[in-house]
Amino acid sequence: MSVANHNFCFYSNILIFCQHSSSFNDESETDNWSSTRSEVSKIAIMLLMTRCECILNRFLVDENDLGDRPLPTARLAEVSFVLHELAHLVIHADTASILPLRPHLKTGLAEGNARKRSHLLLLFPTLSELVVSREARVRESVQVLLKLIYKELTMEKVITGS
């Protein structure tokens, strides 16, 4: 197994753990949210976001460097997986409280507006660059993530009757 594939499997498993573990998911388990799980999740979410950003940035560099040549299948699979898992990852409000966000974004967290995907705000600059990827799967996944960020910022359209 190559180093790239090993890293992919390792980080894939971490993302899967985060998605399915009650340590990260906000499943109305506030009473069961222990201080140990809280501390572990705060460390893990920052490591995950750093790794995700690294994978996405490496994809951007590779896509630019390769020009018209196709990307390696493994690289495309890796970035597709990361984008897909990011769209499904929700985090506990306590975990979100440590994210390095601007004060006006943290205000909603402090006021009890439980943002479950505030980790996506950290990746917004990188996701914005991926909008113009030549890979349709990547563009579609990024579109989903940008819509989630839009909702996270509570900018979702209010549909009014005519």
What's the number of extended β-strand segments?
A: 0
Task: Point out poorly predicted stretches.
Answer: 1-5, 22-31, 157-162
* Beta-strand content estimate: under 5%
- Helix percentage: 55-70%
Structural class: mainly alpha
For the sheet with most strands, the description reads: none
Rounded to an integer in angstroms, the radius of gyration calculated over CA atoms is 17 Å
Oligomer: single chain
Number of separate helices: 8
Shape: globular
Written as H for each helix and E for each strand, in order along the chain, the element string is HHHHHHHH
Work out the count of structural domains: 1
Give the overall average pLDDT.
76
Distance between the termini: 60 Å
General description of the model:
The protein contains eight helices and no strands. It has helices spanning 3-20, 35-66, 73-88, 93-96, 103-110, 119-122, 124-130, 136-152. Mean pLDDT is 76; it is low at 1-5, 22-31 and 157-162. The chain has one domain. 65% of the residues lie in helices and 0% in strands. The protein starts with a helix and ends in a 10-residue tail after the last helix. The chain is mainly α and 162 residues long.
Gist?
This protein has one domain.
Keywords summarizing the entry:
65% helix; Mon2 C-terminal domain-containing protein; Mon2_C; 0% strand; 162 residues; mainly alpha
Write the layout of secondary structure elements.
Layout: H1 3-20, H2 35-66, H3 73-88, H4 93-96, H5 103-110, H6 119-122, H7 124-130, H8 136-152
Helix pairs in contact: 1-3, 2-3, 2-7, 3-8, 7-8
Domain Mon2 C-terminal: 37-142
Protein name: Mon2 C-terminal domain-containing protein
InterPro entries: Mon2_C (IPR032817)
